[in-house]
Design goal:
With 231 residues, the chain is of the alpha/beta class. It is 31% helix and 28% strand. The two termini are 27 Å apart.
Length: 231
């Protein structure tokens, strides 16, 4: 954890489980960076990641950035396994988490075998990947302060691309790990074992730690194939 930066954008009170996650990650040595005050999700992401890149330059020993949403329940062993995978493979890696529509918050990236477009609830990004994207991202200013356009939302080739999928594209695609984290929607919901089994068959890295909550009910029939954005 001592080589990790955790970054979160939030414009509301954090869920209790998320507060506990942040506290535990911080206790184990992660550097936690909070961004708040904007209802524009895309701008909040850009501002948070701009700040994160500044912190990376100040702390060259921090080599993985873990993006978390403010409604996530993330066991520390899963956070560590996700960071290890991103570090080992040199690519952004996402944990699997369920949505209210009983799907995983991810879609296969058409034309890019093995890569995914994902929600940003629990995404580990290698330092070099984020700094490389920063160098390519357009600069914009708000209230006299400059930021980088890491992501945005809008139409693209007849489809609407949300800011999370756009960031996935801008990072060159994401590897979806067979690692389970909780998504807090009036209680944590978790991907089921069948979903994780299918991901594990194609994931090019071992070992990975599966963690689930005995108090949580797995959401069944989860096939992360839909092109719809879901949170």
């Amino acid at each position: 954890m001592k080589n990790m930066i955790v970054v979160m954008s939030s414009n509301r009170e954090l869920e209790k489980q998320t507060k506990n996650t942040l506290a535990e990650l911080s206790r184990l040595g992660a550097l936690v960076l909070m961004e708040s005050g904007s209802a524009d999700v895309a701008f909040a992401r850009c501002r948070a990641l701009t700040w994160t890149c500044d912190v990376l330059r100040e702390h060259p020993e921090r080599d993985v950035v873990l993006m978390l949403d403010d409604d996530m329940d993330v066991p520390t062993d899963v956070a560590q396994a996700l960071a290890d995978a991103a570090r080992e493979l040199g690519r952004p890696c996402s944990a699997a988490y369920a949505t209210l529509t009983s799907t995983v918050a991810a879609s296969r990236w058409e034309g890019h075998p093995g890569l995914w477009l994902v929600g940003l609830g629990c995404l580990a990004i290698p330092r070099t990947s984020l700094l490389d994207l920063e160098s390519r991202a357009e600069v914009f200013s708000i209230n006299g302060k400059s930021y980088r356009a890491f992501t945005w939302c809008g139409p693209d080739r007849g489809n609407w691309i949300a800011e999370d999928y756009r960031l996935s594209i801008n990072l060159g695609g994401v590897l979806l790990c067979p690692l389970s984290v909780g998504h807090i929607k009036k209680g944590s919901i978790w991907p089921d074992e069948g979903t994780l089994d299918r991901l594990e068959q194609e994931f090019p890295y071992e070992p990975l730690v599966r963690t689930s909550s005995s108090a949580a009910t797995p959401v069944r029939n989860q096939e992360p194939e839909s092109g719809e954005h879901a949170s």
